[in-house]
Structure formats: structure tokens, C-alpha cells
Fold this protein.
Amino acid sequence: MSWIASLSRGLPRWMVGLILVVGVALIALFGLRILNQLDYSRKVQSGEIQVETLRGWMTLSYIAHAYGVEETDLRTALGVAALGYSERSLREWIDASGQDPTSARKKVENLIVARRTDKTDGTRISP
């Protein structure tokens, strides 16, 4: 007799079904997470995303501190107000300015990548 049969003998039939449903749901959930990560990796490989850790929830001051760029440069690149609304996230700034999210992200990425590039020999350096 298999170990599954001996285990399920003591459990009610509905509980075995519930365990199977929960197991299938977890497999589906983690499968979707893997697909999402593969799509993200493809975008990084193709150059569509250049700064892997840039996220929409980040504020401009957080991005400035994390990547060593000036917040005023970020605001200029996005074409938004030079002062105020410091608590707004990148996503909120993009929505408020009516820009295409992909092109706005590209502007911020280009600024960060430009700051990462060593001016003397053109090689990329870490933030």
C-alpha cells in the first residue's frame, strides 16, 4: 500500500480534496511568478529595462539617493515641477504628467546609466 493511501485513510474525503486544491493553487501561483520573472529577465536582456531595481513605488528623492543622481535632474528629465510633491512616487509623477510609462521610465534609466558611466574611459560603474 502506498504512503498516500495510508495517509489519506485517516482523513475525511473533503479534506483530501481541499489539500489537492490548495496544492494546485500554490503550483499555479508560483508558476505565474516564474513566468513574470522570465518576462522581466527577457526585458532586461533586450535592453528594454536598463536599471533592474527601479520600481514605480520609489519617490524621486529615494531614486536620487539610491542611484547617486540629483533630484532636480530627475525632475528635469521627467519634465515635472522643480519643487513640491516630494512624497509622490515615480508612478504618480508619470501619471500626473500624462507621459507614456515606458518612455518616462526610459528617461530616468538613461539619466541613471549616464551617471554610472565613468567619464574618463566610458566604462560602466556601480551606483
Summary: The chain has a mean pLDDT of 77. The two ends are 60 Å apart (CA to CA). The helical segments are 3-9, 13-46, 60-67, 71-78, 90-97, 101-116.
